[in-house]
Design brief:
Elements lengths: L18 H22 L5 E3 L1 E4 L5 E7 L2 E5 L4 E5 L6 E2 L4 E6 L3 H6 L11 H17 L7 H30 L6 E5 L4 E4 L1 E2 L23 E2 L5 E2 L4 E6 L4 E7 L2 H10 L1 E6 L4 E11 L5 E7 L11 E6 L5 E6 L4 E9 L3 E4 L4 E9 L5 E7 L2 E4 L3 E4 L9 E3 L6 E3 L3 E9 L6 E4 L2 E4 L3 E4 L12 E3 L14
Antiparallel strand pairs: 1-32, 2-19, 3-14, 3-18, 4-13, 5-7, 5-12, 6-9, 7-8, 9-13, 10-11, 14-17, 15-16, 15-18, 16-17, 19-31, 20-25, 20-28, 21-22, 22-23, 22-26, 24-25, 26-27, 28-29, 30-31
């Protein structure tokens, strides 16, 4: 018997493809392809249009210019002031005394002068000055502390000096000559006790270096200081009209301000607001300056040379959109009388002159979208018309050759799932955003969705965000 009967051959099971497995594999491969395509494709990003405005940098540090007159001492000796800084004096008012021998200082420091107590009114004046300073103090401007110190010292000494003024005559009577000289105001004005070299400056003297406060040297004139003949004794601001000069970034900015003629200004020191007349100047170095002239509030800032201000410019309000969404597109411009409504939908369109194979002329209604208009013309889509086409005026035989073109700025609206061009009117802009007019006939409305990057789409592209 043959041994073949003892050989066992393994049975190979036939492949049995289940239809469910095939469907699963197909779907799995499709998903893998879609995911790979998703990550390899640049995606259209939408932007929701919101209302807003553009805020520009309108805060400046300015230099105050006033009609200032330095009054020099005609005597040598120790000075004692009897007018507080910031007070107005008339001709003949006592401003200070000059003590030639120093006896007045000795008299003040001895019991002969009696007790120099301050009245309730005097204390109220001091409290008011201290409260005003603490409410506006900024740690970043610590130098203001020194100005405050000199102001308080001047106030206290002035009040104390008035208490002993009646005894000054007694000192003069003890000597054959007048050792203490009275000095009176020769002009009317606001008294200040500092000099800084900026007194004669005008707009046309301005340079960028003058705004460097590190190089600024302010000399305070204080009580009981020894003065020589010809030294500054005090200063008078003789005119209520004064100005602040600021440095701006360009002549374009200066021109825009000059066109306003008057600009509202907020003084950051006390939040006071005032209107200033505008004038500009560009020096030989190309630095651009703007002068704002006021007719009030000079006394409030008479002791300040550098003043921080904010220009309260009217910001245009509208729809705020990124500049990346803006695109410029060409259109055909046709007279309004050649646009009519027709077709089954009653949409806007034109009567286009067409010819058959035999050269016979006829008219065909062609739908076209209106993107903007003037008083006499419409901007029409250039995809359905061509240069040289003839349009027929409705109910007439008059013809118009399509040739005139114009461009419009706009964005792509994607509310309906495709890129739909919408014209915009830009009211204001900066490097990143533009403010456009809202609720226009052919434009945007708040909450519309637009393409963030207009370079990524074309007209009527379907959008998959």
């Amino acid at each position: 018997m043959s041994d073949n009967r003892n050989k066992i051959t393994k049975y190979r099971k036939p492949v049995n493809l289940n239809i469910g497995v095939l469907i699963f594999i197909t779907i799995f491969v499709y998903v893998i392809i879609c995911v790979a395509a998703y990550f390899r494709t640049e995606h259209i990003v939408g932007y929701s249009v919101q209302e807003g405005s553009l805020t520009s940098n309108s805060i400046y540090k300015g230099i105050a210019l006033r009609a200032e007159k330095i009054v020099d001492s005609t005597d040598a000796g120790y000075v004692n002031y009897f007018t507080r800084e910031g007070e107005r004096v008339a001709v003949g008012n006592l401003v200070y005394t000059i003590d030639e021998t120093g006896r007045l200082s000795e008299y003040i420091n001895t019991s002969e002068s009696g007790e120099n107590s301050l009245s309730d009114a005097d204390l109220s004046e001091l409290k008011s000055e201290i409260t005003s300073f603490t409410s506006r103090f900024d740690r970043r401007s610590f130098s203001d502390v020194y100005s405050f110190r000199y102001n308080v010292e001047g106030t206290v000494l002035k009040l104390a000096n008035y208490n002993i003024l009646e005894n000054v005559n007694a000192l003069n009577e003890t000597s054959n000559t007048a050792l203490i000289n009275y000095r009176y105001a020769a002009d009317t004005g606001i008294v200040t006790y500092f000099v800084d070299g900026y007194e004669e400056l005008t707009l046309h003297d301005m340079t960028a270096e003058l705004f460097d406060q590190k190089e600024y040297d302010k000399k305070y004139l204080v009580n009981n200081e020894l003065l020589a003949v010809g030294d500054p004794a005090y200063k008078l601001s003789t005119d209520e009209e004064w100005s602040i000069v600021i440095q701006v970034d360009s002549e374009e900015t200066a021109h825009e301000l000059v066109e306003e003629e008057y600009v509202e200004v907020k003084f950051l020191k006390n939040q006071y607001k005032s209107w200033g007349a505008v004038e500009s100047f560009t020096n030989e170095a190309g630095d651009v300056f703007v002068q704002l002239t006021f007719t009030n509030s000079m006394v409030t800032f008479c002791s300040d040379r550098f003043i921080d201000i904010e220009l309260l410019l009217e910001d245009e309000k509208g729809l705020k959109i990124p500049n990346s969404a803006i695109v410029e597109k060409e259109f055909f411009i046709v007279p309004k009388e050649y646009v009519t409504k027709g077709g089954n939908s009653g949409k806007n369109g034109v009567l286009l002159e067409v010819y058959d194979e035999e050269g016979n002329a006829s008219t065909k209604f062609v739908e076209t979208t209106i993107y903007d208009e003037t008083e006499t013309e419409y901007y029409l889509d250039n995809r359905v018309l061509s240069a040289g086409n003839y349009l027929i005026k409705p109910e007439s035989t008059e013809k118009h050759a399509v040739s005139k073109t114009g461009s419009l700025k706009g964005v792509y609206n994607i509310n309906k799932g495709y890129a739909d061009f919408k014209q915009i009117t830009i009211l204001n802009d900066n490097e990143k955003y533009s403010i456009v007019k809202s609720n226009t006939v052919y434009g945007l409305n708040v909450y519309d969705h637009i393409v963030l990057d207009a370079t990524m789409v074309n007209d009527n592209d379907f959008i998959y965000e």
